[in-house]
Every structure is written in C-alpha cells, then in structure tokens.
C-alpha cells in the first residue's frame, strides 16, 4: 500500500485537523496531510505583505486570496481524498468552493459538519462519499479505507 | 457569432435572473440562459415526491439534492459562462459549491454580490473573471463580451 | 432549453424503454433517447453475420460484442444522462459494465431496478444520482430535471 | 523498469488474489498489488459501523458502498493494470462495474473467469486486453508484460 | 438518432471510399463522411504551392504534411468512428499513424485490409473494434451500429 | 463537410482579418470567424467602464483584461483552427500568450508574421502547423484544408 | 509536505533565477527548480549542431526551437508552479507563449516584470495568481505558499 | 533535475537501443529507458503460449498483440519522451501506430530513420519534435534536452 495524500479544507478555528492527524498517527496510517495556511491573519494579509499595500479592501483581499489559491489548488489536485469541514460560525464560502472544486476534479470527498447544517449543506453532502459529524469518524473512515480496519474488529484486510 | 450558453447559479429569492434575461434580450444578444429549478419548495421536495418518503431529514435532503445535481451539473458543464449570485440571506453554500465546480472545469466565472460580502467571498472572487454588484453590470459584461459593445459607445466590434 | 440526450442501458426483455419514451413524449419533454440494439438475436449474431463465422463461441461473442461496443460507447459518451435498468433475470453484467463506464466519464446516472436487488447493486447505486423502481419514476425524474415540474404541482420553473 | 501497480477487483471468496501475489513474488516481479477490502462482513457493515445505524437496508448499503468507493476508485485510478475476477456465485455486479470504470479510464484490463461465463461476460471480455481462466495465467501475463519472460523460455527481454 | 461522423483514413488509390459512401447512402444512413485530401499530387505539393518552394525534399514534405495535419487531426477528433484502410501497396505509415492517433483518443476504430496483412497489422487490429476485408462489410457494420439492421434480417432496432 | 470555426488572434491595427474573411468568402468556404474585440479603446476601457473606476492603472488593466479573457478563451476553446498574427509594432505579448494557450489545448495553429520576426518568434513558429507571411496565404491554407483546393488547380478533393 | 516543482521561464540575461534559487535555499524550502537551457548560444544552435546545418535561417531556428520544446514542455507539464519573467529588452515572445501554455494547463502562474510593462502584459497578468516586481517577492510568495511563513512574522502554519 | 523516462519504440533487429542506452550512460544522463519486448519470437507467441492455442492465425496474432499492448501502452503513457525507430525492412506499422498514439497523447516525439524514408514518413515526421538519422544523434538530443550540453561545447546549463 502506498501513502495517501489527504487535504483538510475549511474551518480554521478549532482543533479538528490536529485530532484527525493524531488519530491517523495513532492508527499507524501512512497519510500525508495537507491544508490551507491556517493562520487567519497571515492568510488575510499575505497579498499586501508581500506584493504591496492596497487602498481598497477588495484588492487587498484579491491579492491575498490568489496567493492562497496557489497553495490550495495545488494541494487539492495532488490529494487522493479531500475532507471539508464546516464549523458553527462564519460564511465559510471558501469551504464550499473547495468542495465544488474537488467534486469537479472527481476527488473522493468527505464532508464534516454538525447535524444542524444538514439542510443548508445538502448539495455539498450530495457530492460527498461520506458525511461525518466528528473528526474521530473521519479517522475511522480513513482507517477503514486505507487499512481495511473497523472499530471493534480485528484487522479486516491486509493490503 | 454563435449563440452563448450562460448558467445563472445561486440566490433564488429576488428577480436578478429576470433582470439579466430581460437586459440581454433588449440588447439583442443571442444567449440561452439556464438555471437550477428556482421553485424553492419543489427543489426541496423533489426527491421524496418522486422516489418515496424518508423518515430522516438527511435522506430527504440527500435524494432531493442528487436530483437537482442531475440538472445543475449538466447545465454547468454545457455553459460557456457561469454567473453565480450571492444574496443577503442564507448560507448559500450551494452557490459557492457551484462556483468551485465551475472554476475547476475552467468555465469563465462572473460573481454577483453586494459589496458587504467582499471579504467573505474573496476566494470565490479570486477565481472569477468579473465581480459585479448589479444584474445590469452582468448584462453589460455579456454585451461587451459577446457583441463588443460598451455603454455609451457605438458598436465596437463586428464579430 | 436545449434538447437532452438520454441513453437507456440494460435489460431488453420488457417494455421499460417504451414506457419511458411514451411518458417523456406525453410530458412534452425534448429528449432524444438512444439505446443498444435491443434485438437479442441480432446483438448476439452481428459479429459473425457481417465479418464471417467462427468455430469457437468465444470469438463469435468477441466479434459481436465489439461491434455492439461501437454503438454503445459512442452513445454513452454523447449522452447527458444514462439510465441503467436491471431486470429480474440473467447476469446482466453488461448493464453493470455500462454503469461503471458512465460513472467514470462523470455522466449523471439513474439506476432502475426492483427492490430485491438493493444489496447486490449497492456499489452501482452508490454511484448513481437516483435509484428508481419504476419507469414512471424515471419519467418523473426527467420531467423534474428538464422542465422543473413535480407530480401534482403546476410547472415549477421556467428554464 | 519501475514498479507496476496492479488492482485485483472482484470475487472475494476464493484464494485467487493470494495465488497471483505468490506467483508474482516467486517470479521476482516488482508489483504493488491492491484490492478492495476483502472482509465481506466489514465491507457490508462499514458505513453504519462508523457513521451510525440506518433503519432502511438501502441506506445502510448506500453508506457502506460509498465508503468502499473511496478506496476502490482511488486504487483503480492509481493502477497500471486492473484484473477483474468473476467467480461461480453471486451477482458480482460490482466486479462488472469496476471493469466498466477501468475501461472508461483507459486502464489495461485483464478479466479472469471460468469458461462457462463466456457468453454472459462478452461485453466485459471485449473491453479487455486479456481473458484468462486461472490465476496462474494472470501471473504469466504479468511476467511477460513486465519482464518479457514466457513459460518454458529463458528471459526474453531486458527492460 | 443523430447523424454520425465517420472519418475514412488511409489508402487513396482505389474506390473504397466511394463504395462505402454509396452503400451507406443506399442504406439510408445519416452519416457525414470525411477524409484526407485524396488528390495525391495536391497532398504532396500543398506546402510549397502555398508557402513557397524549398530546396530540400525534407522541408517540402514537412510543410505539406503539416498542412494536411490541420485537416486530418481536426476531422479525426470530430469523428464518432474512424475507418482505416490499408491497401496492397506502399508503406502507408500515415494510415497506421492515424490508427494510433485515433486509438489514443478513444475513437472506435474499424480497420479494413486484405487478409495477407493480418500478421503485419496485428497491433493495429488489436486496437480496433472491427477488422473488415471489404468496403461492403464496413457498410454492414455502420448499418448495424447505427440502424440496428443485419444483412438478411428485418430492421432489428428502432433507435 | 461541416462548417469550420477559425479564431483570428493578435494584431488589431491593419486589415488582415478583413482580407482573410473576404478571401474565404470569395472562395466559398463555410467558416465562422471569431476574434477578440478589435476596438483598441474599448478593449482597454471595458473593465472600468462597466465595473467602476480604479485609481491604479494596474487594476484598470486587470479588470479589463479579465473581461476580454471571457471572450477570448471561450472562442479559442471553441475554434477548430487558431490563426495568430504578429505585426510590426508593439509588444504583442497577448498574441504570443494566445498562441501558447491554443498550443496547450492542441488546437492547430497558423502563425502569420513578416519574415523579420522569424528568429524572435521561433518558439511560436515551432508550435505551429503553418507559418505564413500574408493573409492571402492563410486563405489558401484554409481553402486547401477545408476544400482540398490548391491555387492554380481544379478542385482536388470532394469531402 | 512534499517537495514542489517550480519552473522558471523567460528572460535569460540577468541573475533572477539564481536569486530565487538562493532565496528559496536560504528559506529552507523543498523546491526543485527547472528552467529552459539558459545558454543563449547553445539554445540558438542546438538544432543544427546536432541534426545538421540548414541554409535558411528559418529552418535553423525551427530545428532548434523544437529541440528546446522537448525540454520546456516536459518541465512545464511537470511543474506545480510556473514563474515567467519578462525583462527590459527583446521581444520575449517565448516567455508569453510559455505563460499561455501554462495557463491553458491550469498551472498556477506567477509573473515577474518591471512596472513599466504593466499595460503591455495585462492579458498575461490577468491569467496569473501573482504579479511580482522582484525575485525576492517571488521567494516570499513561495515561502508563504509552501511553508505558510510571512516576512516579519513567526512561522504561520505547520503543514 | 529529476530522472527522465524515455520509451524506445519500433525496429527490433539492430542494436540501436543498446547504442542509445550506452551513449546516455556514458553522458551520465539520469534516464530510465523502456521498450516493447524485443524478442521477436516471444512477442509473436506470447498470446497462445499463455492463454492457449488458436486455429486461426488471426486470433493467435490478436491474443499476442493485446498482451503486448498492456506493456506498450502503459510504458508510452508513462514516458516523458518517445523515440520511434524505422529500419530498412518490414512494414513496421506498429512503429507508426505507436508514433500516432504518442502524438495524440501530446508526448514529445523523436523519429529515427534513414533518409530514404523521408517522403513515406512525412506525416510521422511532421508530428515529431526531432527527426534523427543515427542513434548517436538521439543521444545528443537527450543530452542537450536533459543536461543542456552540446557536442564540442562545455556544459551549457545547470538544471
């Protein structure tokens, strides 16, 4: 079995990425995780910090968002699996954008969100191969998909 | 010049589609517009209405969203240009999903939203070839792109 | 709205294709239906009838199946939507093959089969955007997807 | 010569995978084999075991089949060669689905089945580059294709 | 049924194209045939006739072959089916090149050649969905594939 | 023979497009020509004229160039053949950009430029299927490619 | 984080490549840089030096440019990010061609040029995800994109 | 610089492959060469030797050619550069087929043949980025393309 590349898109204000990475590590899975830059301030400022100030907020955002796109598109295209997390707050349109982008590329999509978003996210969920509510479920999915192991069972498949 | 196919994605509670279609018609542009099913209730109920009731809201949404996807993905893939509108209300994750989907397919993208969403939509705007605030601007863009005409000028280009 | 191309794959011993075509016609939908050659004997014999007899059944089948593939692959690739029907009898591996072929091409897939096949067809159903049990449901799906109309409701959407 | 990736799809109730892997190993071939999760029960239960119980068998199957699809599609897309085995029993529609999926992606396809299935599998065989009856023949094919060696001959080709 | 595009590649010294076109016409098939420029002298001279003389035969050939490629590649890519004819004489490497080009694009390929070329053309035949010996067989294939009709049988399939 | 789509990219200060279109018309060729907006001022101003003024020249250019890209990319992707003209003046980087864009899409490319640019355009010419010096040569190329006719010869090929 | 491949296209008369490579090295970034052959004379002469003299300058250039294309297209297609530099002198149409080629392949594009070229390069800049004026800015972009670090800030993101 | 994959297609009766491999080795180039099975007898017999005898020569050839296709298509698709050699004898249609296949995939193509075949191979040469007459020229091309070195010059480019 070769190593899998998993991209973790979306919400950046809780520790869901760390929990998935720790769980995968504990399960001994050979996964390389990648993600957007998760430092909110850096992500907002990168365009003007590197390429020069802008008077209008629109162009500041534009320059920054494009720099971030160099990273995110490259990593999504390289990923075997894309996980998109929607949290409790904010518009999170970039998360839904990433989900659409990954879906159009044919990437297997796992969506992670609290149950209360079910109706609002129904189009995103409809494009996914799994809809989870906790990071631990995502770890279990990755463990099953990569190693063939289910919770509470012995290793199901050598590979 | 051949006829253009333009898909109008997103918000379904105002008359922005009608305003674009009427403006394009008035400008004499040869455009075939398409859109998702814009009857909100039909769009929500279609899955269970046709394929049978579900106890859980998740599966009701799932069946419906997948039927809608037959339409939306087919029309987006067929479109020459995709316009995505974000309104004042609701999560509108399906609009952002469509934008990501269209971007990954390499479709020219026009985003239409009020200025107050600039920061929250910066990743979507960064993938667009135009960001407009009014349906009338979208008409002007289509008129220029298809017919080479600018507001307040005589016809600029034969095509 | 442009005309849709819908390919009807699978079982050839009942009148499900006729029922879908009649229903779509009655609903006034602009659909061009296509299908494999549904004359079982012709489909089996075409290879040797045109290109010369074979001693071994394998090569007779091989020559015939390849001629049929000229038709089926061309029409599947041209289709906007692929409907695959599994009936009560026979192995029907060609139907499942077509479903896989269409799925890999990213074609919206509608699967039509009796409930008793649910478990055996779970991988095929998982790749579909709709799973129906009757030809009439397929007509309703096409009517909703193309015309925005639901059973028992007035026309829901202009398109 | 680089290492080859070979995906072994289909029947999970006999030891055909082990025989191919052992034969390839004995022949000194540099092949990484992959496969679906071959623990039947785990494969059936994975969806509800990880993501929560379902009342309807359809949704239990649906959730499980989609998790399995994360694995199978990723591995098929990564494979250089796809081998699909049809056994004596069961519907095996997932095997035919995988064959169609691989064919549409342009993957070289080897089909492995008993002679009695020749007629029923003619469309699948017609898409294949080899049709074998025993796992040992598959090993010989891989040995020839990768190392240029034929049974009963000295090494035929350096590579 | 929509009209089919069939490209007729290869040998230009016999009337095989006319026989196929006449046969298809007689059978009432809706086919648009295309072909390379079949005037041998024009095909050889076109480069220097339009773009200026060359001293070296290599560059004369090069300029001409590239002009012809504008036509042949465009028409092959547009074709639903590609027929490649190998005759009795000449190297005919351009025919084999077209066959490889069409195969890599996934176009259904019909090869037409006398039996004596079977061994020399085995790689080309292996990529084809039909290998015929006479133009009349090609007409029968097209009639079956498009109209579902076999020789000596009533119309087999509506389409 | 179906109608061809030909995109005419590049220099906008001489009448080369008109000469090609007139020549093709005179030759009775069924070609739909397309082009960028050739009104220089409109092309420069379109972004700010429709979407609002900018203080910085960079953003004025940026908004305009993106609107133009909606047109040019759509038409290049739709074209069967792309002609790129380099004139005597200006940087003309957009022409070279279009040539690279068309080449990567696999579009047959005809480059039209005065001999003095041969060395500077060698990479562009190397990607082309024809390099012409006059619009009349482009007409002759199109006449030969589409109708099989050479200057000073009777019609060479039916098609 | 895996290693990134970055292609450095364009101007070959200043040390901008060395400055980017040194800066990336200093920042500890795992990047494999590639570039065209930057020895101007070798790049001009390679065709005739290897494949034989030509009388006409056009064919000397043609043979050389095609050899260079073997290298440049392979490396651009392999790159994760393409940087294109426009300097003060020369036509630099090959740089613009590379930019168009990379854009059509969907490669993230960084353009590097002095401010005075802003208007002439507006179409190229419009296709880019970043427009820089100094090699040091390109280093900062790569550092941010790959390592999540901004100038004057501590490391922003683990990856 | 990463290692290059070069596929050597075509003639199998002279030592041209060995001369290229030895030359590349001497030049210190990091190239992985691949090729079809070059044992003529094994290549002819492989199908029946592994999968069982056939009465008709056509099917013997067919089975063998398909096994060879598993190898050749996989290696061509994996190659960065494809070299196709035409020798003095035989039809060599498989070489021309490989050239067409590689061209349609967009692979850089180097054709190697004696001058006397120039006219007969003009369509193949027109699709190539280099046409050489000796294996040593192919080595020089690879050395220049990969290492930037020309004969009789010091190393021209670091890479």
From TrEMBL, chains A, B, C, D, E, F, G, H:
<dbReference type="InterPro" id="IPR019884">
    <property type="entry name" value="YtoQ_family_protein"/>
</dbReference>
<protein>
    <recommendedName>
        <fullName>YtoQ family protein</fullName>
    </recommendedName>
</protein>
<dbReference type="Pfam" id="PF11071">
    <property type="entry name" value="Nuc_deoxyri_tr3"/>
</dbReference>
């Amino acid at each position: 079995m070769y190593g899998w590349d998993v991209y973790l898109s979306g919400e950046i204000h809780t520790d869901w990425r760390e929990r998935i990475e720790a769980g995968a590590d504990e399960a001994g899975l050979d996964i390389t995780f990648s993600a957007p830059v998760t430092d909110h301030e850096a992500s907002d400022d990168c365009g003007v910090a590197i390429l020069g100030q802008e008077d209008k907020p629109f162009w500041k955002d534009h320059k920054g968002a494009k720099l971030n796109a160099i990273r995110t598109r490259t990593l999504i295209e390289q990923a075997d699996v894309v996980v998109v997390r929607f949290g409790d707050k904010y518009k999170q349109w970039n998360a839904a954008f990433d989900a659409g982008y990954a879906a159009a590329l044919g990437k297997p999509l796992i969506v992670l969100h609290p149950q209360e978003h079910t109706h609002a996210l129904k189009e995103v969920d409809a494009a996914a191969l799994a809809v989870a509510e906790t990071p631990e479920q995502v770890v279990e999915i990755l463990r099953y998909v990569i190693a063939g192991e289910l919770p509470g069972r012995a290793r199901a498949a050598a590979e």
